[in-house]
Amino acid sequence: MTKGVRGTRDFYPEDMRVRNWLFERFHSAALSHGFEEYDAPVLETEELYTRKSGEEITQQLYNFEDKGGRKVALRPEMTPTLARMVMARSGALALPIKWYSIPQCWRYERTQRGRGREHYQWNVDIWGAEGVEADAELISVLVQFFRSVGLSSDDLVIRVSSRKVLEEVLGSLGISGEGFSQTCIVIDKMDKLPEDVIEAQLAELGLDSEAISTIQSVLSITDLSDMGTALGQSSEAVSELMAIFSLAESYGISDWIELDASVVRGLAYYTGPVFEAHDRAGELRAVCGGGRYDRLISTLGGKDLPATGFGFGDMVVMELLQAKGLVPEMPNGVQDIVFGMGPELREAAMRVASSIRTGGRSADLILEDKRMKWVFRHADRAGAERLVMVMPEEWAKGMVKVKHLATGEESEVPFESL
User: Fold this and answer.
1) Does residue 122 contact residue 26 with C-beta atoms inside 8 Å?
2) Do strands 399-404 and 363-365 pair parallel, antiparallel, or not at all (unpaired)?
3) CATH 3.30.930.10 occupies which residues in the chain?
4) What is the pLDDT of residues 5-16, one digit of tens each?
5) Crossing angle for the helix pair 236-251 and 224-231, nearest 10 degrees?
6) 256-282 as b/e, with b when 16 or more CB fall inside 10 Å?
């Protein structure tokens, strides 16, 4: 009984320190761009995720019937919850909404490198802004985070496209509605499945070889001028993409983004610009992804509101940071170790520890009788700054002995001024 549920993780203190370090940088990147944090219950009604059938996510739910007979599910993603929250205060929220969260999400799927059955996902969304300026702002948030953890554009690329590219191509082929959604789901697997498998799945959707060839030709485009030639200069997709790349220059992040028309994102609710971050070496899954979803609320029974956002899991980026040697050594953060020499000085040591804590420093009090060798080893493991020793002769004079562990310097300090 020492193992947890398959696909889940235990976070020991050393793991929590790294997780907190990562989350602090999530917080910082979002807050620096004016976003506000929100949260919601991990348990939602099952219908929130099953209203739109045919998506892979509906097959991955941790769902059950509660004791009241209600069908509920652990959230597999945060966007439907956010949509529900926005709908609940429709008309009362000041627009645009710039919110972020770091929820734990659950999906029952095959575990593999960079993907478990639970993970934390940094979600950053803007609601109520129609222009691609909002999409560019999200990409800026991503770049700031990547820079804050030591990654550069040599390590990562943010691949940008638009669902409207595929919409225009498929529209010219007479494919729309449910056929369009199903085609997006298949194309989203292009980097995961062999080409012949993708072609077979597209053929199953009713596409002939000429249509498949046209789709493959357009989705292989990596240059905006070539995209303009393929779709025409009046193309709305081309216009939006040109605007995003122009805005990226204003942000000074052009070296981070590239056009990749094959990025479509599998979820049916995306409607416009979409993007994914990938490691340049191509060894990992997508680090994160997102895009515009202007018509999500109507699928849930509400009035639509322009929206764009991204989801950023904690697992793949940690794989990348570890591979690059960018995860810092994380001591437990205690500043002082307090040790009373012998049982008769334990209460005195408690007074000293309390005084230190009241003064705003963290202090770990040794609660048992230990040899000095153990105390020094413990202080070293903790990465503490000082060892504060309460010893008989010094305490009788109202003094304590303080050892600065980085330099080895020792001194006697009056308890009152500690």
Assistant:
1) yes
2) unpaired
3) 13-323
4) 899 999 999 999
5) 160
6) bbbbbbbbbbbbbbbbbbbbbbbbeee
Tokens for 110, please give them.
Answer: 């095959």
End-to-end CA distance of the chain: 47
**What's the CATH code, domain 336-417?**
3.40.50.800
pTM: 0.89
235 token code pair: 């193309």
Residue whose tokens read 């496209």: 161
Helices 209-219 + 163-172 axis angle, to 10: 150
What the block records as the tokens of 289 is 């992804």
How high is the pLDDT of residue 301? 84
Q: Domain 13-323: give its CATH code.
A: 3.30.930.10
108-148 per-position pLDDT tens digit: 988 777 778 999 999 999 999 999 999 999 999 999 999 99
23/314 Cα distance (integer angstroms) = 9
